[in-house]
Amino acid sequence: MSRSPAAVLTLLLLWPLSASAQAVMENPAMPLAKNAGRVLALTEVWRITDDAGDFFLTGANNLQIADNGSIFLAESKQFLKFSPDGKFVKDLYKKGQGPGEWPSPGAFGFGLRGKDLFIYEPGSNRCWRADAEGRLQEEIELPGLDYPNFVGVVPGGVLFLNFTFPPRSEWTGKSMDLPVTLVEVATGGASRKARDAAIFPSRIFVAPHRADFDMLVVKPSPDGSALYVFNGWDYRIDVLDPVSGAAVKTIKRDYPKARLVLTEAQEEDRRKNDLPKYDYRPDIQNLYPTSDHLWVETSSEDKAKGVLYDVFDKGGRFIDSFYLGAGKTLMAVREGVVFCQEKREDDALIIVKYRVGK
User: Fold this and answer.
1) Structural domains in the chain?
2) Full DSSP string of 256-281
3) Per-residue pLDDT tens for 151-183?
């Protein structure tokens, strides 16, 4: 299946890792928890609906929680702010061509650091820092970046994956190397510089009318002191130092592959665009770091139970595994609570905060 080049889950990075420089945590198929494989016990705290008409939920692609508990939600043509108890505060989205404004209504990336918002708008290739009310504080230059892919915010600045597509004349239905650079763009002060943290070889399959990327997830820890990386297909998570780009730890676990089943329309699209055929899904679909744990969204799914999530402690030990529940799309995790996107019986989208049971 093809994926958008603007998505976080994109490129396959073959990280040049040195076995002597990192710890490798080899975990078994089953976690330490005796009740692993259960459906997670969740108690609703509150829910966000668009019934009042102040905004309209069409499918959130990014939800983040500030240090004070405020909630920021990226939606198409909307950048919504809610209070810690889920009450609507305002829409921070500003359409226009000026500083701190979005010229196009497409997807955008954002991250939080302290009281600041860092916003990247791919349509204009601009990045800026705003306060919690959306007021522009500074424009952030992106020197020498071709197609930046927003990763997140770390103490030194903003992280991007930067890559350059081959010319269209070479899109002839073949796999190609595609170098990718992890770039940190410094913020604050009069001088802003881009620093290459690491350079990686990658692969891309290019057909005449479509490009197909292998899976990549890159997520910074809440304090920005580590990067969690999944690339490719097999269950392996590399923990990187965002300053040097060096791998400090690798987490693995014995994992059964989940077969990839395409719909008739997806299969027709694959054949039409001469894209590769894959037998299995990538083992990992997303990563959710918290202050003390790492939640891993796996490729295993049950119609009645939902998606299977693994949990690792800071040392990389596989401590728990559970299903989130049917119909729940995880948006964010904090210690003891989760935020999920769901559909009501009338098909209206809602955001629900749950307290996690023991």
Assistant:
1) 12-356 (2.120.10.30)
2) ---B----HHHHHHHHHTT----SB-
3) 999 888 898 888 777 888 888 888 888 777 888
